[in-house]
């Protein structure tokens, strides 16, 4: 496992060299169902409409896909297929690759990377799924070279509301206990995030996200993209 991280770390070093400096990052984080994807897509589109080149960066962890694979193979879920820690490791590697890919693409095209999830999300996932201190330390080290976001937005939604949204979405299912633990873990892990109330309708939340991002844009985030 350690060898895998060392390899990824080396790959990342080479990729950063190829890309020059790192991309400017705006990250949206929050519990499952808080509206990250909805708002990150809208924010990237709104930035582009305002003449600021931005790129939406998805950050899938593979849980839904592995869950489907597991059921095809007659297992109840992904944990039954690869184990709890195995799943956390796969998720951490996939998210690492997705973040690296998005940052390099944003850097090469001179765009701001609007990230749907970012490094704190993996730490929260490890805590909420009981991955243990050793895995958390390993992931912290592997994710440490990623650039600090210019703005990190925590979409704050009560776990009960997030649960209802996920049920209504109908793609997957999350336990309310997991959402509760995850919500508490975000508050613990995040130190410098802007908290945005995610409970309103999508337009209201989008306006609040924009209000949180715009001061950074005005102070040169767009001009300095790639120098954060
Ligand atoms: N402000 C909102 N009000 C009502 N429904 C919303 C709002 N924002 C998003 N939704 C809906 O709630 C569901 C969850 O939103 P979304 O997929 O954006 O959340 P997410 O944080 O990306 O979730 P996940 O972590 O599972 O990827 C979607 O069906 C979406 O259409
Ligand atoms: Mg999403």
Automatic annotation (TrEMBL):
Which ranges of the sequence are coiled-coil?
none
Q: Name a single GO biological process.
A: dTTP biosynthetic process
Keyword set for this entry?
A: ATP-binding, Kinase, Nucleotide-binding, Transferase
GO cellular component assignments: cytoplasm
Q: Which residues form the Thymidylate kinase-like domain?
A: 30-182
The yes or no answer to whether the keyword Protease is present is no
Q: Which GO terms describe its molecular function?
A: ATP binding; dTMP kinase activity
Supply the InterPro entries for this chain. Answer: P-loop_NTPase, Thymidylate_kin-like_dom
Superkingdom is: Bacteria
Q: Name one Pfam family in it.
A: Thymidylate_kin
Which family does the record claim for this protein? Belongs to the thymidylate kinase family.
Protein name (record):
Thymidylate kinase
**UniProt source species:** Catellatospora bangladeshensis
């Amino acid at each position: 496992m350690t060898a895998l991280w060392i390899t990824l770390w080396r790959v990342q070093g080479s990729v950063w060299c190829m890309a020059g400096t790192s991309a400017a990052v705006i990250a949206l984080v929050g519990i499952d169902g808080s509206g990250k994807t909805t708002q990150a897509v809208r924010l990237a589109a709104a930035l582009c409409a305002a003449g600021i080149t931005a790129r939406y960066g998805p950050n899938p962890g593979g849980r839904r896909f592995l869950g489907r694979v597991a059921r095809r193979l007659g297992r109840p879920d992904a944990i039954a297929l690869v184990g709890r820690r195995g799943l956390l490791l796969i998720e951490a590697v996939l998210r690492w690759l997705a973040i690296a890919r998005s940052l390099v693409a944003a850097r090469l095209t001179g765009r701001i990377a609007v990230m749907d999830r970012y490094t704190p999300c993996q730490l929260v996932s490890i805590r909420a799924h009981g991955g243990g201190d050793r895995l958390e330390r390993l992931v912290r080290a592997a994710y440490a070279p990623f650039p600090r976001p210019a703005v990190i937005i925590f979409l704050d939604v009560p776990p009960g509301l997030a649960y209802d949204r996920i049920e209504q979405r109908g793609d997957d299912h999350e336990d309310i206990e997991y959402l509760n633990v995850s919500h508490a873990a975000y508050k613990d892990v995040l130190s410098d995030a802007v908290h945005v109330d995610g409970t309103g309708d999508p337009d209201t939340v989008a306006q609040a996200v924009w209000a949180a991002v715009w001061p950074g844009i005005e102070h040169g985030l767009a001009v300095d993209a790639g120098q954060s």
